[in-house]
Write a structure and sequence with these properties.
Order of helices and strands of chain A: EEEHEEHHHEHEHEEHEEEHEHH
Structural class of chain B: mainly alpha
Number of helices of chain A: 10
Structural class of chain A: alpha/beta
Radius of gyration of chain B: 32 Å
Oligomer: heterodimer
Largest sheet of chain A: 6 strands, mixed
Number of domains of chain A: 2
Shape of chain A: elongated
Distance between the termini of chain A: 41 Å
Strand content of chain A: 25-35%
Number of strands of chain B: 4
Radius of gyration of chain A: 24 Å
Strand order of the largest sheet of chain A: 5-6-7-3-8-9
CATH architecture of the largest domain in chain A: 3-Layer(aba) Sandwich
Order of helices and strands of chain B: HHHEHEHEEHHHHHHHHH
CATH class of the largest domain in chain A: Alpha Beta
Helix content of chain A: 25-40%
Distance between the termini of chain B: 42 Å
Helix content of chain B: 55-70%
Shape of chain B: elongated
Number of domains of chain B: 2
Chain lengths: 310, 408
């Protein structure tokens, strides 16, 4: 069963295709990351999937319904552009957001207080939003996103604007929700978050999905890297190394040949290379992303992430 | 449908609470009193000025006995015709004592004379400018004639025979009632529709609109906002009516009375109230559609100005149509949705037929729903572009509905 299914989804603004023929299947109960640089079409895709805007072409189902808004009671959504009523109290804000999703107002307020207590913000429950710090306000909005116990949580760039401590808290919350069987989808341009949290990812660039699958599948697209240190610098064992192997003195770095590690080891031992050390490194998601989306897109994302960190 | 109204209630409750606890609500409540206060102050000031500006006086320079008779005649006739009917009169000379050129009196600035009457009661001479003579001559002749008769001139007494209605002047009188109703509903509608618009723009600038759009149908957002403002308006009307009634109790019979409308007062008030709701729902839905696509107050002002002007034209059109009952122009005003509520208020005042109103109210309601759906459609089509949050870009109004292609 899929939480979200999209087929040939297209959304364009003034002739520009923000979402360009997206096919996507997000299984229920997974943490799903949507990776892409700024302007890749992540937000528009999420808005289209949630029914905030209608697609120009293609179809989508959300929790089995082709009318996404009809499932809104089971969905929690944190938009990229955070917004709250400044004069509303924190607890009322959560209650209001819960009431929007079908929860009785009183029940939502009670749950709101509990959530704020759990987040260590119980003391701020009766403060107006304008009296809270940006991080606190963001936490309040996040509480409003989950107060009605949704089956699906969609977070658009949830880590942006948060300090390291709050990022860690958010990661913990995402894991806790996933542990309860909730499907969590979040978009990000920071690969590290996706790598730490997601089982599955989709990589989007220029409105198109260039990869959709398990994180391990993405990483498996690249051969592991072998780091080798030998006693001798030359010998017949060199024949076992791929032609593109880079040498730094006694150190060698190369991708593991398709034949695997055993024939390589045999050749090194028989060729008397004198192995001092040998490690095989599995490529990270970043390397996989570079391979899938291209160097330029990856550099763009790195720049954006670095800029945000500053 | 049930979900749409449930969600609309959540929005309406939030908006209503937020509004009545805001400073803006105090100003809203006080709003109608400002024109009343200004009108009252202007009236008093005007009266004061009128008092202070010296009124023209008719100078009398007849023989002493004739002058006294003239003044007595004025006093006597004023009881019948009213004190303000005749200009003030003052004896400025005695023809028996000395014959003085009347122009000498007119040149005396302190007396402020418009004309001077010399000669005799049988042959009075009026000296003054041509305009002043035209203005005073008939009155002087009347007074001289009455004075001559020594107060024995008997004016016939007409016997009053009061009827409730006449075909001739009822329409004219009821038009006043119709105009009163139209003006009241128009101003209230414009005031509220403007507030709905500001409210939605505030929501967009707060960036809450995306949360709302993701949580509930946009129809609910629009409906909720309309109903919240309507509830606020009803609260306002309740307050104003209470104050108005208190004022009426205090002033009582001195208040001006409007002619009874053709459908009777209770039905007329009910229809005015219904048409107010219809006019507000239509204009509010239109403004919401506009507001959904504007990001800043400045953009709202730019976009809403032509709509406000158009609505003003509609109002004048409906007012003008009052004088053309039954003619194609008036029928068009009654059918055209934006002028229909005002034109139908006119009909309620002038014609007793009721089924017209049932048809008009149904039509207006359907049109309001259509506008609401159109607003939602335009919102979904043009708003929520990533990053822009629905901002109407530099092309502004031209691009508003996405119906006109802009050359780059």
């Amino acid at each position: 069963m899929y939480a979200i299914e999209a087929k040939g989804l297209v959304k364009q603004f003034d002739g520009f295709r923000a979402v360009d023929g997206v096919d996507l299947k997000i299984p229920e109960g997974s943490i799903f990351g949507i990776l892409g640089p700024n302007g890749a079409g992540k937000t528009t895709m999420l808005r289209t999937l949630l029914g905030i805007i209608d697609p120009d072409a293609g179809s989508r189902t959300l929790l089995g319904s082709d009318r996404p808004i009809s499932q809104s009671r089971h969905v929690g959504y944190l938009p990229e552009e955070r917004g709250l009523y400044q004069s509303m109290r924190a607890v009322d804000t959560i209650a209001f957001m819960g009431a929007l999703r079908g929860l009785p107002l009183k029940e939502a307020a009670t749950k709101g207080r509990i959530l704020l207590e759990e987040a260590g913000l119980g003391y701020a429950a009766d403060r107006q939003i304008r009296q809270l710090s940006k991080g606190m306000a963001q936490t309040v909005q996040l509480m409003g996103t989950i107060v009605h116990d949704p089956k699906l949580i969609v977070l658009d760039e949830p880590f942006s604007g948060l300090d390291a401590l709050n990022q860690a808290k958010l990661e913990k919350m995402i894991r806790a929700q996933a542990a309860k069987g909730v499907t969590v989808i979040f978009s990000t341009h920071v690969i590290a978050h996706a790598e730490r949290l997601c089982e599955r990812i989709a990589i989007i660039a220029k409105g198109k999905i260039s990869f959709d699958g398990l994180v391990s599948e993405a990483r498996d697209r690249l051969r592991p890297i072998v780091h080798l240190e030998t006693e001798t610098r030359d010998g017949p064992w060199r024949q076992a190394l791929p032609a593109e192997a880079k040498a730094e003195g006694h150190y060698w770095h190369f991708t593991l040949p398709e034949t695997g590690v055993e024939p390589l080891l045999t050749a090194l031992v028989e060729g008397k290379a004198g192995i001092r050390s040998l490690s095989i490194e599995r490529p990270g998601l970043h390397d996989a992303f570079v391979a899938i989306a291209g160097e330029a897109v990856a550099a763009e994302m790195d720049d954006a992430a670095a800029g945000e960190a500053k | 449908m049930r979900e749409i109204f449930r969600a609309a209630f959540v929005i309406a409750r939030r908006d209503f609470t937020a509004i009545i606890y805001s400073k803006a609500f105090i100003f809203f409540l006080l709003g109608p009193f400002f024109p009343v206060l200004v009108g009252f102050a202007a009236g008093n000031l005007g009266g004061q000025i009128a008092k202070e500006v010296s009124q023209p006086v008719v100078g009398i320079a007849l023989a002493k006995a004739d002058s006294d008779k003239m003044l007595a005649a004025r006093q006597s006739l004023s009881k019948t015709l009213g004190d303000r009917y005749f200009a003030q009169m003052k004896i400025v000379g005695d023809a028996d004592a000395a014959q003085i050129n009347p122009q000498t009196y007119l040149r005396k600035k302190t007396d402020n004379l418009s004309v001077v009457v010399t000669g005799t009661l049988t042959k009075p001479i009026v000296t003054g400018t041509a305009n002043a003579i035209d203005r005073e001559r008939a009155d002087i002749e009347l007074l001289a004639g009455y004075a001559q008769s020594g107060g024995s001139l008997q004016l016939p007494q007409a016997t009053p025979d009061v009827v409730v209605e006449t075909a001739n002047n009822d329409k004219q009188l009821r038009t006043i009632t119709a105009q009163g109703g139209q003006i009241l509903v128009f101003f209230l509608t414009m005031l509220l529709a403007g507030m709905v618009l500001s409210n939605l723009v505030e929501e967009k600038s707060n960036k809450i609109i995306e949360i709302l759009a993701a949580s509930i149908p946009m129809e609910s957002v629009f409906l909720g906002k309309l109903f919240a403002m309507l509830a606020m308006a009803l609260l306002g009307i309740a307050v104003w009516t209470s104050i108005g009634l208190a004022g009426f109790m205090a002033v009582g019979p001195d208040l001006p009375s409007y002619p009874t409308p053709a459908v009777g007062w209770p039905m007329f008030i009910g229809l005015c109230f219904t048409y107010f709701i219809m006019a507000y729902l239509m204009l509010g839905a239109l403004f919401l559609g506009i507001g959904a696509m504007a990001a800043t107050v400045r953009e709202v002002q730019t976009i809403s100005m032509p709509v406000t002007m158009a609505q003003l034209i509609n109002f004048f059109f409906a007012s003008y149509a009052l004088t053309k009952t039954g003619e194609p122009l008036e029928k068009f005003a009654a059918i055209f949705p934006f002028s229909s509520p005002f034109a139908m208020i006119g009909r309620a005042a002038l014609e007793p037929t009721l089924w017209h109103h049932a048809v008009a109210i149904t039509g207006q309601m359907l049109f309001a729903v259509l506008l609401l759906r159109l607003g939602v459609y335009l919102f979904k089509k043009n708003v929520m572009k990533s990053g822009s949050a629905g901002r109407v870009s530099e092309e502004g109004v031209r691009k508003l509905f996405g119906l006109i292609k802009v050359r780059r």
